[in-house]
Each structure stands twice: as C-alpha cells, then as structure tokens.
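User: Teach me something about this protein's shape.
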Amino acid sequence: MDDFTAAKSALFRFAGTLLAFGTIFYVSSVERSQPNGAIRNGTSRADGRSPATPYATLAAALSSTSNPELEAGDTIILMPGHVETVATANGVDITTANIRILGAGRGANRPQVNFTATDATFRVNANGVEIENIQFTGGIDAVVLCIDVNGKTDVAFRNCSYRDVTGQCTVFFKAANNSDRLIMEGWRYLGDAAAGTTAAFRFDGCDDLHMTDFEIVGNFGTSAIQFLTTASARIRIDGGPTRSFIWNQNAADVCIVDTVTGSTGNITGDLYLRVTDNAANITEAITGATFSVFDNVWVCNAVNEKAMLINWTASTDA
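Assistant: First, the predicted structure itself:
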C-alpha cells in the first residue's frame, strides 16, 4: 500500500467518527516519493494540507505559530512510519480543543511517539481530544511520566500501545484531577519484566472514566492501574469485546488499586488478572473498598494453575 492509499484508508476507517466539517492535516518524518516528485518535509511546501506536503512533526502541526489554522473539528493524520521524538517536558502539547489525532498504518508501521529524555512528556491540555492508533515507546530509562492528561474532560485514547525499549518508565500515563469522562479503549501495554515502574496508568479524580478492551503486562511496584489522591466516582473497568488482561510481575501482586480508598465504580468481566506470588491473596488483586466487582473476574497466582473467580464477599439480600 502506497502512502496516499494509506492516508485514504485512514480516512475511510475513521469516516464514522470524523465530523462533516474541519480541515485534515498530515504529518510525516519520512521523505516520500510522490507523483509530483520527492517532497522533503520542512520545506516551504510543507503546509500539512496533503500527504505530499506534510508537516515534519506533530509538534509543528499543533503549534499555533506553525499551524495557526488548527481549530476545533480538525483532524491530524500521522502517516505510516512517522516517528515523533519527544525530548522535553510538554514536547508534544495539545492545546486545541475537540481535535482528533489519528495514526495511519498497521503493526510496527504505525506512527510512533518515542520518549528520549527522563522529563519528556506528551501533554493533553485541551478538552475533547481524541487520539487513535499510535504506538508510544520508552527510548530511555526512567522516564518520569510519558502521557499527561492535564485535568481535561472528554478525552479519548483508542487502540494505542506502549512498549518499554530501554529500561522502564516510572509512570506511563496519568490523568490529573477533573479529567472526567475519559475513555481508554484498546490499550496494549508491554512493560519491561524488571522492576522500575510504579504504575502503568494513574487516575486522579477522574469521574466517569471508562477503561475497556486492554492488555497490560509489566513489573508494577504499586499496581498496573492506580487510583490516587482524589477519589474518582462512577468508574468502569471491563473486559470489553475481546476480554482484558493484566499481569503484574512484581511481588506487590496488585493489578488494580485505589490508594484513595474512596473511589467508586464497577469492575466487570471478562477480566483476567495474573499476579506473581503463589502465596498472594486472590482477594487483593483488586484493592479498593468502595468498588463493586461483577463476574467474570478471574485471578491466577502461579504457573500450572487454573485461575479462580476473585473471592470478594458475595452480595446477599441483607
């Protein structure tokens, strides 16, 4: 599939969600041979309006200086093979509300956001932002925080992934207080097996969060998913259409934890949880006194064993 076809494919694939108005901008770090000759990104022709004249970076496409025309309802398409290097705090900073950032491509050819400094962050600092089909990678050990949703509402991440490449990030994703109605759908997180990560996903006061259809594997000192600082109300974590899976390879043996001990919501099947210590308490794979759990939530704590339903206290008529 050539690059023009890939871009068209992305448009058709997302046609059900694209608004009827708005401008489409393109981003590619790859020099591409186009019908009218080779176009190198960053030249005077790089206005982002077509795959032949893309912006060289997502940061440029988001910048009010480089792209003053970006506004609500617009879509930014990252082309296949694009690599966005994030080397500073807020190196990618999304400040325009109600835009979509969509990755074109499949598998390893999907656009990539690579973190190369310990303070590097990809910040969502606007309401109503939707991000889909992007692979995030940790290109340096001990990145403090990769993705920062800065207290913004109605943000959605769909079918994205993360992979540790060099060492481990400390925290991959955090949504700050008031990041309400956050949608986390189709995440695939492949963390390093060695210790170094505190949590993959942290939620601080994220009311009406919905997290579904995910896979999280790594060594998490606190938990794979953590609720902290400010209670989150009415959260929902579920297996989704393809079932969801968490494997914590740390002796902490917790997959979902509420360290606020006041968050509320529902954790439902089909959800499969794997902990590491054979002596681990099955009950505490999910720790949060005010959550409710619905079958089927399965927990396994050793190889060569079959998982059992999490043994929280069953509801009664009393």
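Now, about its shape. Confidence is low (pLDDT under 50) at residues 12-20. Residues 3-13 form the longest helix (11 residues). If you'd like, I can walk through any region in more detail.
User: That's plenty for now, thanks!
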